[in-house]
Design brief:
Layout (H helix, E strand, L loop, with lengths): L2 E9 L16 H23 L6 E5 L1 H8 L1 H24 L7 H20 L4 H10 L3 E6 L11 H19 L6 E2 L10 H6 L4 E4 L1 H5 L13 E2 L5 E4 L2 H8 L18 H4 L37 H24 L9 E7 L10 H17 L3 E3 L2 H7 L4 E2 L14 H4 L13 H21 L5 H17 L2 H9 L3 H24 L4 H13 L9 H4 L5
Parallel strand pairs: 1-2, 1-8, 1-9, 2-3, 3-4, 5-7, 6-10
Antiparallel strand pairs: 6-7
Helix pairs in contact: 1-3, 1-4, 1-5, 1-12, 2-6, 3-4, 11-12, 15-16, 15-18, 16-18, 16-19, 17-18
């Protein structure tokens, strides 16, 4: 056999639960990812399993996403979202009944919505349980990441340690198992993190290509074999070609003219009266998920989308993807462990951003299955690869990240358009984070054994700190996308940390302040499974 292909899907969304609003726009991120990406992933795994094919992919689920998937309020709101979407699609079916070109596209969406409902009912709304079942049956391997997907190189060592510890602990509490590997948020790595990863029992992680290419000594196979750090943590490297073919809208598969255009949506095309109430506050237009056009080309004119033609293109691209991986592996035959092409992607790319992505992924896995039967290449999870090929080159990985520049600029650099950042910049965010870190860490040292209301305030301060540290806010602020929301979240979490720490530290709490602590805890129940020492000992030296 030539070697292995390790497809890694990283599923993450920031904590966006807003019970104070009936239909918050940000919760749509979860609803859209569920019906366009996560539930199609489960359908794909079920089809492969029915055909006797083990997908053998690695799936990372962040603790923030896991907590939202387990949350009863958000599950209920997803069902309501699908009800509204079904109502809109039914209205569209009546509107387009006389249009021979649009009618089959609308019928496609009606069937897709029905299939989504059926999957949701089949798994009883338990996405985490369904994923755990697939892991138990050998189809996937589950990972998690730091507790709120913080860009770890930007944190103090104490906070980075807490992010890793709490990420593993929260995932175990929610999913019932402790993963062997850990996804580094944004593939962000600095050598100072290595002792924390090792102490937390992390067996392996993934870096961008230059994290291995710049390792010392230089690995003889570059990114086509993991390295073992002196601390015992294995590091896999992202294959640039496999990434480019799937990530790039310009040079990769998703940009083909036959695929559905993400940006052309009836939420912007149709008059408000035709949208069945699927609009934002004050008449704000938003993506409904019903999109009728294909990419067509770079110009604004778009032809109608043909789902059948797009599926045929996805099958062809999947075959090409597997053939290219075989060619890569064939070129590096020699002594040593069998090579592996590591192909990590955001899970939301498949379905949400690239609608035909789940079709592509399924047929790539089917092609890999047939290639394995022919003795050529095989799909593998990261943990299974290490078990099969334990003899690794010992080397020190390099500081690195994915994203522009490759060294964290996408999360720490200046705002690309300061006029769109609500007076916030990544530098402001870092200052907020550093101040909150110092405040919480000092209080944990001084009031480690606090109980009662003071203990609840201390625990909630820790939760607010880790939510403040999420990498999502810096990315949004830098790019000017949802920057107002990100800036508001930064200021809200920082303010709550400050007030909670003052209340926990002064020794007495009034009646109105007690009510505020209770309300804050109820509004933000993230990490509700962890309290007291299970939160506080994450900051141990």
């Amino acid at each position: 056999m030539l070697g292995y292909v390790a497809i890694v899907l990283h599923a993450h969304l920031p904590w966006v639960r807003h019970p104070e609003h009936a239909r918050p726009l940000e919760e749509r991120w979860l609803h859209e990812a569920l019906w366009e990406s996560y539930l199609p992933l489960l359908d794909m795994l079920a089809r492969l399993e029915a055909d006797g094919i083990a997908a053998r992919i690695t799936v990372s689920v962040s603790p923030t996403l896991a907590a939202m998937l387990a949350d009863p309020l958000l599950r209920k709101r997803f069902v309501l979202h699908m009800d509204r979407l079904d109502k809109l699609a039914a209205q569209e079916e009546r509107r387009t009944s006389g249009d021979a070109a649009l009618r089959p596209i609308v019928a496609f969406y009606r069937a897709r919505i029905e299939a989504t409902r059926a999957t949701w009912e089949r798994i009883r709304g338990d996405v985490l349980g369904a994923l755990a079942g697939h892991e138990d049956r050998g189809s996937i391997e589950l990972l998690t990441t730091s507790v709120t997907h913080a860009y770890l190189p930007a944190l103090t060592r104490s906070s980075a340690r807490a992010q890793v510890k709490l990420g593993l602990r929260a995932f175990e509490a929610l999913v019932g198992r402790r993963p062997r590997g850990l996804w580094l948020p944004e593939c962000g790595y600095d050598p100072s993190l290595l002792p924390e990863l090792s102490a937390a029992g992390v067996g392996y992680t993934v870096l961008d290509a230059h994290g291995l290419e710049l390792a010392l000594p230089r690995p003889p196979r570059g990114v086509l074999a993991p390295i073992l750090s002196p601390a015992g943590v294995a590091f896999f490297g992202r294959d640039p070609q496999a990434s480019r073919e799937v990530w790039s809208r310009e040079a990769g598969y998703p940009g083909h003219p036959d695929y559905r255009d993400f940006y052309r949506d009836i939420g912007f095309d149709l008059p408000e009266v035709a949208l069945a109430g699927e609009i934002g506050p004050d008449g704000t237009r938003l993506m409904t998920g019903l999109k009728y056009h294909r990419i067509t080309g770079p110009r604004s004119h778009k032809e109608l989308w043909d789902p059948a033609a797009a599926e045929a293109r996805a099958r062809a691209d999947a075959a090409h993807f597997v053939a290219e991986r075989a060619a890569t592996l064939r070129a590096v035959q020699g002594r040593g462990p069998r090579p592996v092409v590591v192909a990590p992607y955001d899970a939301e790319l498949f379905g949400h951003w690239w609608f035909e992505g789940p079709i592509f992924l399924e047929h790539a896995l089917r092609a890999l299955h047939h290639a394995e039967l022919a003795g050529e290449i095989a799909p593998v999870t990261l943990g299974a690869y290490l078990a099969a090929e334990p003899a690794l080159t010992v080397a020190e990985p390099s500081a690195s990240s994915w994203g522009e520049g490759g060294f964290g600029e996408a999360w720490l650099g200046r705002a690309l358009d300061p006029d769109r950042t609500e007076g916030m910049s990544p530098a402001h965010l870092v200052r907020h984070v550093r101040h909150a870190e110092q405040t919480v860490q000092g209080l944990v040292r001084a009031r480690r054994g606090a109980d009662g209301l003071a203990g609840r305030a201390l625990d909630q301060a820790i939760r607010e700190l880790v939510l403040l540290e999420a990498s999502d806010w810096g990315f949004m602020i830098r790019r000017g996308e949802m920057a107002a929301y990100a800036a508001a979240r930064v200021r809200a979490h920082a303010s709550r940390v400050d007030r909670l720490c003052r209340l926990a530290g002064r020794g007495w709490i009034g009646e109105s302040e007690a009510r505020w602590i209770e309300a804050t805890t109820e509004r933000t129940p993230f990490l509700a499974e962890l309290e007291g020492e299970r939160l506080r000992d994450a900051f141990d030296a």
